[in-house]
Design a protein that fits this description.
The protein is α/β, with parallel strands linked by helices. It has five helices and six strands; from the N terminus they run βαβαβαβαββα. The chain has one domain (2-148): Flavodoxin domain (Rossmann fold), CATH 3.40.50. Strands 1, 2, 3, 4, 5 and 6 form a six-stranded parallel beta sheet that branches. This is Flavodoxin domain-containing protein.
Amino acid sequence: MKIKIIYTSLTGNTQEAVAVLSAALTALAAQVEVFDSEDGIEVADFFNDADAYVLASFTDEDGQLPDGILDFYDDLTDFDLTDIPVAVLGTGDTTYADFCRAVDVLTDQCQEDGAQLAVPSLKIELAPDAAATQEIKRFARQLTQQIAA
């Protein structure tokens, strides 16, 4: 099974969460491709040739999507994701009122475009600690089980 992950990270927290996810998926025999959204991958190229797709982002201080994934998000609007399995995770800081709002924004847009939410979205406080690492591994197991079903 092949899973593609696209992420944006500023402080490294989301990048670290993606690394944990990628390792967990690989341990579950998935072939994983990881893309930094700032490298400019097109939506049509990303949502191609995989069994599932993961979007990962932090949330800007003002509760918005960060600039690093904004172009991808804009192109995602009205893109046909009918029945495509998608999962979303993100990192944030609970001291902000809009904790991990980017996760909700990405999830909502994918569902509006027809995507099948493969697993419940995952929100992580800052960098993954031991508990968050276990949650990411559970997320990976659920995702691979859902794809295999």
